[in-house]
Design goal:
The complex is a heterodimer of chains A (about 260) and B (about 210).
Chain A (H helix, E strand, L loop, with lengths): L1 E4 L7 H8 L3 H13 L4 E4 L8 H16 L4 E4 L3 H9 L6 E6 L2 H11 L5 E5 L10 H17 L7 E4 L11 H15 L4 E5 L10 H14 L4 E4 L4 H13 L7 H8 L5
Parallel strand pairs in A: 1-2, 1-8, 2-3, 3-4, 4-5, 5-6, 6-7, 7-8
Helix pairs in contact in A: 2-3, 3-4, 6-7, 8-9
Chain B lengths: L3 H10 L2 H14 L3 H21 L5 H18 L13 E6 L7 H12 L3 E4 L6 H11 L3 E5 L8 H11 L6 E5 L5 H6 L4 E2 L3 H12 L1
Parallel strand pairs in B: 1-2, 1-3, 3-4, 4-5
Classes of the chains: A alpha/beta (about 260), B alpha/beta (about 210).
């Protein structure tokens, strides 16, 4: 399971303010907390700062890597110039979040990732709108995966995000997403699937519980990446447990290690 | 005997079948069509709006209540003489160019309709020109724009500027969506901002009062 820590996002109030105030310590604490909690990548987003996004994003990458002894970042921006600038200071292999089939975004991001060893989130969205069914998601994923591979990015570096939509607005949205995960993982052996979860619970109370359970359900269908808050201990415990139960934990060793280190308490 | 108060209760419960059945019974008994709508169907939905705002009811409950209300209204509408159907005002809604999100916008539309507004929804991914054209065609008092992305929210400014250039500055422009704040609304010259769908109704009420 690849966990992307989602907390350093400028649209979260505390982070937006810390970026604006250039508060290094605040950002570095959030970075280190996520890294120590088990995040594999630290997402950085400065999207709300029009005109300054590139500089802020670069600043964030430097801070995160300084605080965590070079944890890889997930660079979260639609702007190729901002991404390139942030990549120029990044150590190791970054992840780019994200490319999609929307023409403008596709044309902006493809040149950034083509022929590189960057990892990339491929979001199932096109100019036709948001996919609602598993088949619509699979059709977009098919085209995206093939196009990205043709641009010399190995399948193993592609993380397809089938796009979670709120189950509060249509009761089939959860199931269609889960079916899409399974279909994508079966059809394109070697590719990965990833998603942010919080959309699933929009409009409902106790969102955290819905998110935690939905993560488990998605893992059981083959999902192997999550963009989440790694400081949510129950979520992190659920992920370990789900992976053990689905057969991704040889001799249950991760489960037992986590048990001994008190992660289930 | 069925009463108009019962009708409100079925709307609040989101019981579409019973709402329809009771609406028909009230029509058959000769209740005044406008009373069925205002005291029954919309009154129920008003309660839902307040509870939603207070965090006591949730999105799916609002949606099914709105469905009950609108199916009831559909049954009563043919009995109302044209021009007699009351409207709190006309609001045009759309999501800005490059942005495909519609859930928030649709919720705002539901809440406004439930409060007696006439809502014209022009859909997603609408360029400033499309908003202007629709404003000219429908002549709303209020134009609401939705954006869920930091990359698309700047189109709000373009639309508001174009409205002014086209002499449509008398139409109130309101904005909303996850990345939108009051500061941003002020910056782009909007007449109002609401953080959620229920507050959008209050905002429209105060802009038109």
């Amino acid at each position: 399971m690849l966990v992307v820590g989602e907390l350093i996002n400028a649209s979260r109030k505390a982070i937006g303010e810390a970026i604006k105030a250039q508060d290094k310590a605040a950002i570095q604490k959030v970075a280190l907390d996520q890294w120590e909690a088990g995040a594999d990548y630290i997402d950085v987003n400065a999207g709300i700062f029009v005109g300054k996004e590139a500089d802020y994003l670069t600043w964030l990458v430097k801070l995160v890597q300084e605080a965590t002894d070079n944890a890889p970042c997930c660079i979260d921006s639609p702007d190729p110039k901002a991404i390139e600038q942030a990549l120029s200071v990044h150590n190791g292999i970054a992840m780019i979040n994200s490319i999609s089939l929307e023409k403008e975004r596709y044309e902006a991001i493809m040149p950034v990732i083509a022929g590189t060893d960057l990892k990339v989130v491929a979001l199932c969205m096109s100019d036709e709108g948001m996919p609602e069914t598993a088949d619509e998601r699979l059709a977009i994923a098919d085209k995206l995966i093939n196009d990205i591979v043709k641009n010399n990015v190995p399948l193993d570096n592609i993380y397809v995000d089938p796009l979670v939509q709120p189950v509060s607005t249509k009761d089939t949205f959860g199931l269609e997403f889960l079916d899409a995960v399974e279909a994508i993982m079966k059809k394109f052996e070697g590719v990965h699937t990833i998603c942010g979860l919080s959309n699933i619970s929009y409009g409902l109370p106790l969102r955290k519980v819905l998110n935690q359970n939905f993560a488990v359900m998605a893992i059981s269908r083959g999902l192997d990446g999550l963009i989440i808050n790694p400081l949510d201990k129950q979520m992190m415990a659920n992920i370990i447990i789900a992976e053990t139960l689905i057969g991704r934990d040889s001799y249950c060793s991760n489960y037992l290690t986590a048990y001994r280190s008190g992660k289930f308490e | 005997m069925a009463t108009i108060e019962d009708l409100s209760k079925y709307v609040i419960k989101g019981n579409v079948a019973k709402t329809k059945k009771l609406t028909q019974a009230l029509i058959d008994e000769g209740a005044a069509p406008l009373e069925i709508i205002n005291q029954g169907l919309i009154a129920g939905m008003n309660v839902v709006g307040v509870r939603f705002k207070n965090g006591e009811m949730f999105v799916p409950e609002v949606m099914v209540a709105a469905k009950a209300m609108s199916q009831g209204i559909e049954m009563v509408e043919p009995l109302i003489v044209e021009g007699e159907m009351p409207s709190a005002g006309k609001v045009l809604l759309g999501t800005v160019k490059g942005d495909l999100h519609d859930i928030g916008k649709n919720l705002v539309g539901i809440m406004l309709e439930s409060s007696g507004y006439t809502v014209i929804d022009i859909g997603i991914d609408k360029a400033p020109e499309a908003f202007i054209e629709a404003i000219k065609e429908h002549q709303p008092q209020i134009m609401g724009m939705s954006a869920l992305l930091t990359t698309t929210m700047l189109h709000m400014k373009d639309t508001i500027e174009l409205m002014k250039e086209e002499g449509l500055g008398n139409v109130k422009a309101i904005v909303g969506g996850a990345p939108i704040s009051q500061d941003f609304a002020d910056e782009v010259g909007a007449d109002g901002f609401a953080p959620d769908a229920a507050s959008a109704v209050d905002l429209c009420n105060s802009l038109l009062s």
